[in-house]
Queue: 3 jobs
Job 1
Amino acid sequence: MLRPTVSPLDKRDLLVQVISASVYEADYFPVELGAASRLTDSFPRTPSVDFSSHVVAVGRKVIDIG
């Protein structure tokens, strides 16, 4: 997997370093569905909605992250 860098950061992007993450029901539910999850999920899929992070870089046009 490619590691993101600051250089190609779009003016509206925010780059964060995830410090810790928890497993949320939405993360493991597709695994329980098996092949059937391919019918309902779109790819690429971004797992984990609950995490703690540090802001590494901010695009020029970012004015709020809340």
Job 2
Amino acid sequence: MGSNASRCIAFLIDFLLMMGQRYGILVSMVVFYGRKVAACSLQNFCIHFAVLLHICCSVTAKLLQYYCKYMCSVTANRLQRHCKKHAVSLQWEVSVYQ
């Protein structure tokens, strides 16, 4: 699970570095073409980054969900086996007081 998150972060950093190079071009575009082009380019950058972040977070969340579901199931089974040993005596004790 940790390696997937690390790969996602590394991918996002590479993406940001690549976009940073474009951002340098974007600064010169502001001088020549005005603010509208810069805003559109920045908006496209933000949309692409949001999509990548969503994909990486979805994959990591799914892996975490599988892990938690497995651990809860194992814990519930162990607890049930442990409690089953004492259930009969506890049931008798409770019925005496009712």
Job 3
Amino acid sequence: MTDKLCFTSEVIGDQYSADPDSAGKSRAFYANYWANTLSPYPADYSKAGEAVYRGDTTISFNTIAGSVLRLVMTEDMPQGSFARLQAIQSSELITDDLKRQFTEFQKLYHSLANFLPLPDDKWHRHTNMNTAKGVSAAYHDFPDLFYQAVHDQVFGGPNTVVTEPVFTTNKSLAYFKRFNGQWRQFVEQNYLQDFFTDDTYNDFIRLAPTDTDIVLYRARKVVTPMDRENGMAYAQYFLTTAMTILNNRASRLADSKK
């Protein structure tokens, strides 16, 4: 598994799991690439609630797709990435160039280049690390926000204050110990180098919106033309940046086994 195409091809749910990041192909990927760091056994990367680790889709499609659709529609939000892509493609208010980018990213986002195993341990009801990243208002499924919290709260030194409860579960603590308290080790053993501006791993490439970007996490009664223009510009930036990161990570994964 050393061809870049192996890491950029779409992974489909199968008999193991309907979720692509927990499908059989994904479990084999985790067991191979995280064999020394986590576990060499595919069974340890099973469905949520049934294993030690759970696959996570690192960069979300639905967050940015949902935002763009809220800028142009008032109907109920379609569920799932394919339904949202169809709604984007049918909108007359979205440019052909942005539609093309969404189509390309929708194929890439369920690929091995966008997957990563995280500990599967719930601290409250159904909230594991995967879920916390996706639903918490602190992160909105943006990896730069979530992994900044990991950096600050887990690898920040002996006086660090941990405010994210999911970092303190037994499985999460055991998971973080595997990186020996070293942020560099965490980044490199998770193949996250391409999410940073340089090899110090202190500055993330920005995916999350700034204070001036328009991203709609819920519907607004009124969306102005300026809101729409700003939101579309941010979406274009996000998609371009996300696909660059994932293509670079795919090359890194392919090269690491040569």
